[in-house]
Amino acid sequence: MSIYLTSDLHGDCRRFLKLLNKIKFNPYQDFMYVLGDVLDRGNENLELLKHVRKYIDAGKMLLIKGNHELFAQMYLQGRLDARQWILWGGRQTLAELGRLSPDQREELENFLCGLPFYQIITTADKTVLLTHSGLDADCIIESDSRLDVEESIKAAVAGDEFRYLVSNDIHYMPWGQIRKMDHYVIVGHVPAMRLNEDASCRIVHREKYMCIDTGAGFRDSGGKMSCYRLDDGREFYV
């Protein structure tokens, strides 16, 4: 069994299927965590979500909520207007939602509402915390020697889930705080080209955390879809 991590697929179903083929994903043996942002910016948003949900229903994938899943949820709940969502990349997803029946829209809303904000996983030699955005600098639970990542996320979500899911604070917080994190954290959300000094789309490795958003939603800027195999640290790109 292998454990794979991916993030920020952004409505590109064709490349996602190509990625599964490249890693030879075996639904009978392997498991994949998707760290949010399946929706928006692409042209196959609900089709991609349909494929991911097929594996979720089979117990072979877990989707962690990203800000773009929240945008869709808010729209379906009447808390986000179409114009604003379009500005955030939701034009095609909005069009696809328009083809759903009322019952299908309600079912999708319930699914999105139930998505987890983080997951802690343990392998034979490591424990990591997976989440979409990382930390909200204004909701940090820490002592002199320890920053409690899980409790910090819970506090941030309880206070304002929107603010938490759009936060990029983990990349800019002082090292004095980051070094005290009690879990190694793996995130998506911010394209690697904005974090790597060479502006490359390679997975970003830091001492206390990793970012696996390699810009699949920004192909025009050189972005790619990627996957990280937790067992051995191998990276895959399409």
Structure description:
With 238 residues, the protein is an alpha/beta fold. It has one domain: Metallo-dependent phosphatases (Purple Acid Phosphatase, chain A, domain 2), CATH 3.60.21.10. It has 8 helices and 10 strands. A hairpin with a 3-residue loop joins β7 and β8. The longest helix is centred in the middle third of the chain and has 18 residues. It is globular, with a radius of gyration of 17 Å.
What labels describe this entry?
globular, 10 strands, alpha/beta, 238 residues, 5-stranded mixed sheet
List the helices and strands and how they pair.
Blueprint: E1 3-6, H1 13-22, E2 31-34, H2 45-57, E3 61-63, H3 67-76, H4 82-87, H5 91-97, H6 102-113, E4 118-122, E5 127-131, H7 149-166, H8 175-178, E6 184-187, E7 204-205, E8 209-211, E9 226-229, E10 234-237
Parallel strand pairs: 1-2, 2-3, 5-6, 6-8
Antiparallel strand pairs: 1-9, 4-5, 7-8, 9-10
Helix pairs in contact: 3-6
